UniProtKB/TrEMBL annotation:
CDD domains: CCP (cd00033), EGF_CA (cd00054). Its main location: secreted. Residues 138-174 form the EGF-like domain. Transmembrane segments: none annotated. The keyword Transmembrane helix does not apply. Disulfide bonds join 109-136, 164-173. This is Fibulin-7-like. Residues 1-26 form the signal peptide. It is found in: Secreted, Extracellular space, Extracellular matrix.
Length: 451
């Protein structure tokens, strides 16, 4: 509005000048009162414009003072523009190296340990971390009392062993130990009241055949065999090996071996598939962690993921989306670079893409929560979780557990071996308009075994 004042003043002054010229030429012009009135109006307009101009100068001077004060404080803050460095928990790992505000750091625990504390921590504008520093606590497998029939449980990293009471065997002391004996009655008068020990030599020695040990007491002959052998038919002098694998491997009391049973003279032994070791009890199988023991051939730019019975070398690549670029902020996370104001295609691309790798056994029971996605802070008024297209999508669904958390749910067992990819999208909305998208890609490596 103040811009109109100079134009009005010039018009009035021009009018006065024209009138003076007309008077010189002898033409009619407005009278003196009209000219004086016009000059008074011009004076008022000039005064109003001058006041407005002075007010604008005072406002500009205040803004300059504020900017100068802000600039004076910048050097003290520039010395520390990152959050403090976070250490990885003992028996765990830390993912993420960027310590700038808005960036996240993720924590994982080694196999056999559970995370206590914040799984994700974000660097806040105040240059402090959200959440609490996590620790990796060893999982106590003996807490559920897995050893049956009076067995004693010993907790181990990522497992347990059972020391069974007498008469019981198996990985959880679930199988009774077989006992064999035979009693033969001899009514011969020559042996009545006598006690003697008799040995019966074998004509053809064999590891699977042993002689019995017999004794006679008051006319009764007692013959026994070594552990793992039994009397062969009517011939009490011969003990034959018991095939425990055939008789008891899949018995009602439980399996002798978790995987495969091999009969041996007087006993048996359990074997495990490649990628597993036999546990201390000799019956169960324990996965070999090729990643932590460096029994893998993954290159430096690859991430080693331990699986049941093996390992996988994976290399995470940031997405290539037109009109948007991404930078890798951790071995498993990519974040979108800032978009130009007029680049709508860029603003509609995902803000971040995270990769997670999970190892599961075959035919895992369902329903079961497999993964949780949550927002550290919410800028909008609504969060929406969705399951995107993926291999094996029929096995999963996504449901909300609270306002800021969605969870991936396994709804049907998966027969291994198999590798499935599933994507969970978390969208942030403000008045039903999407203001941010976050993609979590989960890869499941399913073992061919159920252990």
């Amino acid at each position: 509005m103040s811009g109109t004042y100079p134009g009005q003043v010039l018009l009035l002054l021009l009018l006065v000048f024209i009138c003076q010229m007309v008077a010189v030429w002898g033409q009619e012009c407005p009278g003196t009162p009209e000219l004086q009135n016009s000059l008074r109006q011009a004076h008022k307009l000039l005064s109003a414009h001058e006041a407005s101009y002075m007010q604008s100068l005072r406002t500009l001077r205040k803004k300059l003072s504020l900017l100068q004060n802000s600039a004076a404080r910048l050097p003290t803050k520039a010395n520390n523009v990152t959050c403090p460095k976070l250490d990885a928990p003992l028996n765990g790992r830390k993912l993420g190296k960027v310590l700038l505000p808005g960036h996240e750091v993720h924590f994982l625990c080694d196999l056999g340990y559970e995370l206590v504390g914040s799984e994700t921590r974000q660097c806040k504008e105040s240059l402090s971390w959200s959440g609490q520093q996590p620790v990796c606590r060893e999982v106590n497998e003996c807490a559920s009392s897995p050893c049956a029939n009076g067995g004693t449980c010993t907790d181990e990293v990522n497992g347990f062993t059972c020391e069974c009471a007498k008469g019981w065997a198996g990985s959880t002391c679930q199988a009774p130990t077989p006992t064999f004996f035979v009693t033969v009655t001899n009514t011969s008068a020559a042996t009545t009241g006598a006690a003697a020990a008799t040995s019966f030599p074998l004509e053809t020695p064999s590891l699977f055949v042993r002689p019995s040990k017999c004794s006679q007491v008051q006319g009764t002959t007692h013959c026994t065999c070594e552990a793992g052998y039994t009397i062969s038919g009517r011939d009490t002098s011969i003990c034959m090996d018991i095939d425990e694998c055939e008789l008891f491997h899949n018995g009602q009391a439980g399996r002798l071996c978790l995987h495969a049973c091999v009969n041996t003279p007087g006993g048996y032994r359990c074997t495990c598939p490649e990628g597993y070791n036999v546990t201390r009890d000799g019956r169960s199988c324990k996965d070999i962690d090729e990643c932590s023991t460096r029994q893998n051939n993954c290159s430096r730019d690859q991430l080693c993921v331990n699986t049941y019975g093996g390992f996988q070398c994976v290399k995470m690549e940031c997405p290539r989306i037109r009109n948007a670029t991404y930078v890798k902020t951790s071995p498993t996370r990519c974040e979108r670079n800032p978009c130009a104001v007029d680049n709508k295609a860029c603003s509609q691309a995902p803000n971040s893409v995270s990769h997670h790798y999970m190892s599961v056994v075959s035919n895992l029971s369902a329903p079961r929560v497999m993964f949780r996605v949550s927002a550290v802070r919410v800028l909008g008024d609504t969060l929406r979780f969705a399951l995107l297209g993926s291999r094996g999508r029929r096995h999963f669904t996504v449901q909300r557990s609270d306002r800021q958390t969605g969870q991936l749910l396994l709804v049907s067992p998966i027969q291994g071996p198999a590798t499935l990819d599933v994507e969970v999208e978390m969208s942030e909305l403000e008045r039903r308009v999407v203001i941010g998208r976050y993609i979590t890609k989960i890869t499941l490596f399913v073992s061919q075994y159920d252990f």
